[in-house]
Amino acid sequence: MMTDIAATRILILDDDPFILKLLQRMLANLGFSSVSSYENGEDALKLLDDAVARPDLILLDLNMPGMDGIEFVRHLVERQYSGSLILVSGEDERMLRTTEKLVQAHQIPILGYLQKPVQPEGLRALLMKLDLPSSRREDQRGTRKHYDAEAIRAAIESGELISHYQPKVRVATGAVAGVETLVRWRHPTDGVIYPDQFIGEAEKHGLISQLTQVVLKQAFFQARAWQKAGYELKVAVNVAMDNLTSLDFQDAVVKLAAEAEILPGKIVLEITESQLMGDVRVSLEILTRLRLKRFHLSIDDFGTGHSSLAQLRDIPFDELKIDQGFVHCASENETLRAIYDASLALARQLGMEAVAEGVESREDWELLRQTGCDLAQGNFIAQAMPAEALAGWMDQWHARIETESLVSSREGKV
């Protein structure tokens, strides 16, 4: 929680005077003394327009007369609000989750939502996520460094791109089945840079093919190294649309596998379904030829694109990755659970392995066990790591399986 609670500025916006007083009392009991309350959005926005008095956190009701909570969020975006948000509403959970997604899309940090009547413990749990230093700082999102095409090109040519690997495990046994390759930029002065800061720019300026070649080469040779060390792992690599528009891509992949002395069956090419929209004739030829060579194909982020079922119909995928947005918290959310169940059933009916992404908690893991999902990936299991860290992590994972009873004893040991 914020180190200086008393100095944390909080704004409550709710048209119900009773709720305002109730939330004020709860916050006071938790030590928050700098709290402003408003019954309408127009008055609350005046506080937002005062740079000195801008709140660090807003507790926002959704359904209010005049300016509702959704419109208020739009005004926050226009004012480049840099604090955090908690939704407080009597609306049903589907409405709250939809609004939460909207806030996230606007890149406003949202700690979560509370349904009325608000319980003190629920409020306290969300406030524990509030993590600001005692001395205020500018919003880090606004100070994220921008890297232009020339810098990215130089990084590719100088070997600054590195690969980290996130494990995939079999849910039934806990056995480590493979890893997904995730690119990082080891910048000489800025440290490790994550792909969301440079992949978009690389795609925009036609650098994604060069970048993918670097990642493929690293992944293939690392797969060979693990194989020599006795680890039978499938190594997955993400493939971009730009790669699937060039007929040379298939030959390049086959050549790299031969140079690395790795069997195609040990490689999984993960294709994000939205990348396959439009004229798919070239990409269909490339992927079909790679499948004939016995490379494995995975449809990534299933359920988030525009043509999921059409892609499953047209392309010979071996694996379906259920998007993390439908996995995490699916055990407690009826809508997410319905989408998760439907995706899992579809994979089974098509004879594909199902991989659940975004497994973040024991509850997520137990859902996969109960429903018989094939593979799991997420921070509950492990974060992405350098190749050299995998062996040590595997020892720790095997120990966790035993001590935390992650699989049933009848399912055998790893």
Provide tags for this entry.
five-stranded parallel beta sheet; 2 domains; eight-stranded mixed beta barrel; Rossmann fold; alpha/beta; 414 residues; globular; 14 helices; TIM Barrel
Description:
Strands 6-7-9-10-11-12-13-14 form an eight-stranded mixed beta barrel, surrounded by five helices. Strands 2-1-3-4-5 form a five-stranded parallel beta sheet, with helices on both faces. It starts with 9 loop residues before the first strand and ends in an 11-residue tail after the last helix. Helices cover 39% and strands 19% of the residues. It contains 14 helices and 15 strands. It has 414 residues and is α/β, with parallel strands linked by helices. β1, α1 and β2 form a beta-alpha-beta unit.
